[in-house]
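ok trying this again, last paste got cut off
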Amino acid sequence: MLLTKKTGAARDIAAESNFVQSLRRGMSQALPTMDRRTFLRRSGVGVGAGLAAAPLALVKQAQAADERKIAIGDTKTTVHRTVCTHCSVGCAIDAVVENGVWVRQEPVFDSPINLGAHCAKGAAVREHGHGEHRLRYPMKLVNGKYQRISWDTALNEISAQLMQLRKESGPDSIYWIGSSKHSNEQSYLMRKFVSYWGSNNCDHQARICHSTTVAGVANTWGYGAMTNSYNDMQNAKVALYIGSNAAEAHPVSMLHMLHAKETGCKMIVVDPRFTRTAAKADQHIRIRSGSDIPFLFGLLYHIFKNGWEDQAYIDARVYGMDEVKADVLAKWTPDKVEEACGVDEATVYGVAKTMHENRPGTLVWCMGQTQHSIGNAMVRASCIVQLALGNIGISGGGANIFRGHDNVQGATDIGPNPDSLPGYYGLTEGSWKHFAQAWGVDYEWIKSRYASPTLMTKPGITVSRWIDGVLEDPDVIDQPTNLRAVFYWGHAPNSQTRGLEMKRAMDKLDLLVVVDPYPSATAAMAAMPGKAEDLNPKRAVYLLPAATQFETSGSCTASNRSLQWRERVIEPLWESRTDQMIMYQLADKLGFGKEFVKNYKMQKVKGMDEPVIEDVLREVNGSCWTIGYTGQSPERLKAHMRNMHVFDVRTLRAKGGKDAETGYDLTGDYFGLPWPCWGTPELKHPGTANLYDTSLHVMNGGGNFRANFGVERNGVNLLAEDGSHSKGAALTTGYPEFDHVLLKKLGWWNDLTDAEKAAAEGKNWKTDSSGGIIRVVMKTYGCYPFGNAKARALVWNFPDAIPQHREPIYGTRPDLVAKYPSHDDLKNFWRLPTLYKSLQQKNVADRLYEKFPIILTSGRLVEYEGGGDETRSNPWLAELQQECFVEINPKAAADRGIRNGDRVWVSTPTGARLNVQAMVTERVGPDTAFIPFHFAGHWQGADLLSSYPEGAAPIVRGEAVNTGTTYGYDSVTMMQETKTTICNIAKA
């Protein structure tokens, strides 16, 4: 929906003078950008940012068109529907393109997700398509400066060096960092690419934002994703936000929460800071960073003490709650809770009572819970609270886990994970054979690409630890050699901890390649001077300009698991190329180009071949049965995007409607076909809006908990009890996952067609390429293909079967370290030795808590996203947030002689010193400081402007908080401990 009259026949051209038409276009094309540019220059921002340069290329392009045709309104205008490329809410955008130039944008008012709203970032995405600070052509670092080179030179030199490193050190000496900014199809291709290269050394942003969620939640009830949706939160009667600042991190999601508040929903925010989200809440509760488990189990203490748990629900659908109850009542009495998290008994009791009296209730968390060395335990504690209250599998309830980037969910689902092939299939021989079949190549050929069968089935190094893959003693690394090359394919280095050591690791590499629409902080870090003893004199650094998501097409998965299709808005600008084209061209140079695109048609873009992206999604549809990425065909997704108006805002379900272009009947579909969307597209499963909902038939989006952990343990039943099943199921008790054997035992085998029998013989629902097992189980018998089991409150395969509070590796409370120590060190964990208790005890022995008495945490701002390179290069956003800053409490500031607006030094145990502006505020308590993590471009007080490619530095630069953050990793996923470290602050 556009707030303008349509062009062409819809407009009475005769009624307008040529001058009026020309003025309208001139205003819409030139003035907004020029006005903002002039404003920035005059306000002083432009001077510091180097903005006072030549006129924008956008304006030049518009002026280059035939002026006479513009004057009479005879220009080609098209509208392309796309999706914001920032956070995971999934806000739809209509992009208006005139003569190939993106001239304006509108929010999609028909979108059931964003309802015509945008945050600051979403309102400014057009600038990413035409941004002046883009990386425009391939570059190479020569004598400390980036020089322009040709694509042929870049690809030839990079591929030659890769092949030489492969010959000398094997395929595992290269590390591939993918991107949560990639589309689903590009993410899938990235994992396929690295597999064909012969390595599992790949990863992406999800490792450092929600890997603990994925592991912890999947091991609790089946899938490690948001159970409900932003929209469904309108049905909640209470919402507990813990470790989520949605108003800044996911601003448009607050629309749905505010609608819920209008109908009486109680909103409670638990956070070490008084955030913008807290400002909208009925109650804000300040806890000490890292003490989520004491608070959550403090709630459970009162829930159990008062008999507020949903016992019938627990008996039928939950395993291990009795053990959890005993542990909580013994360990988390009110005095222990207050000692650990700082919240008094009355407050904790009040929250527990509110959640008991207002069901259904939803629980929201983000990186405030995940980014800890016990992040896996924290998220499981949240899950257990919801299970105890019976809030999972119901509308208005759920674990509403807000993901970060626009496609971090999709990249996690089917992208470059080091421990799994797409769809969480793992790395077993059977998984490899499944994908060999899907990819149309011989399993033995893929096997031959790896250095050994052992390495083929061994999880790779995580992105959070690639620096140790370079710096660690080779004798203690569980692979043949250290890492010698790294690809940064759409990832921000300033999002990772231990920045000082990362700089050393970058300097020691033989090869560093950045593939990105922007040069990113990687380019500046690589070019800036380091220690002479660290620099590899043979190191080569290349920058390759990737197209944005607005210059290609494909699907992306929002946090609620809904898929949306992006149309290409404009052609790739300058010399940029799409990621799929770069992958194909590099694969061709490395000797597996034909195998890489075997199942795809090719299309020409700028005269060069790239895979047809719809064909890539069809390959996903034919392989990723585990999580139901199989029903979302390109055709169905495009029909949804064209007909957003038919979907209900609360339920996301279409009450009717047919797509005018294809005749597809949308009736009953949930918007975006949220996964799992079971079976083939022809089955027309509607998607699953709320996971594990037994009140609905499985063909209407219903379900139950997954049978993924066996049928019994120590003689105790792990399957759902009698009477607990999805609506209309032929089996009215718990049952295991379906395979060919179970189908035959039940007498359902003959419901398969002959072709389906041939494909399903010897297979289970995950590897049956026909989808026949799924079709018969769901459509004919109303059962769930992955079985019907109990959720696990007790996760016996994790370091702590019952979540245990453990103090962070770097903390300010030695008294609590003695009571709640970290884990024992691990000699081999994701291929690397990992420190826990020994480092924690050393920090206490060195009395670091006296030298660095303030807890340092980090988080988001509404104006920027992720590492910030894109958004800080956007003049519309740069104006809004011009400085990196540290929030410091008035007491802590007064004790240090610091006043609001002063320049200060923030020092940490790593030896790093960050020069930022002080914001004296009671948002944080006296024991805590906060720095946003979107900044880079300054390094311990020095501006790195000269280290960026000329003209491509972000407008706003500042210190990266992660230059100073410390060592610490989750005991299951290797998540970095960014939310809790320590610092001191002094006036500069």
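PB: full thing came through this time. The two ends are 51 Å apart (CA to CA).
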